[in-house]
Amino acid sequence: MAQLESLHNIWEAHRDQVEFVVVYIREAHPEDGWVITSNRNQGIVFNDPISNAERIEAASSCAIRLKIRIPVVVDDIDDKIASAYGALPDRLYLISKGGKVAFQSEPGPWGFIPEKLAEAIENLDE
Predict the structure, then answer these.
(1) How far apart are CA 107 and CA 93, in angstroms?
(2) Closest CA to 19 of 69, 71, 73
(3) CATH number at residue 37
(4) What DSSP state is assigned to residue 96?
(5) What is d(CA 116, CA 100) in angstroms, rounded to the nearest whole number?
(6) Whole-angstrom distance, CA of residue 35 vs CA of residue 29
């Protein structure tokens, strides 16, 4: 949760200069997969979605329960975005105005370090 709060702080500080979105991809810890206690403690309890509608419902549930303030978009059930960006289970990206990847974090959860994204944003125009 500390990482999410840090990300929210970066969003607050930089949202006038950078467009932020959270892309909800495949659920890393569904009930019919690798279950973790923290998901259950936060009320995030559902099977791995098998349709776009189910994935949207799961994303909405996660966004509400985790109090995500950044706009959320949802990868289709075909996982094209997650596959294209190697985003599973989570990853931070900064895409330049020209459409190039200006920053790519290591895979999460250990590589999910919002402060490195903030540093990349601050260095974007250099």
Answers:
(1) 11
(2) 71
(3) 3.40.30
(4) -
(5) 18
(6) 5
pTM value? 0.81
What is residue 49's predicted lDDT score, i.e. its pLDDT?
87
State the total domains in the chain. Answer: 1
Cβ within 8 Å of residue 16, ≥6 positions away: none
* pLDDT given for residue 33 in this prediction: 66
From the list 106, 84, 65, the residue with the least C-alpha distance to 25 is: 84
Specify the 3-state DSSP secondary structure of 22: strand
Give the contacts of 28 (CB within 8 A, at least 6 positions apart).
34, 88, 89, 90
Which residue range forms the structural domain that includes residue 53?
A: 2-122
Q: Output DSSP code: residue 24.
A: E
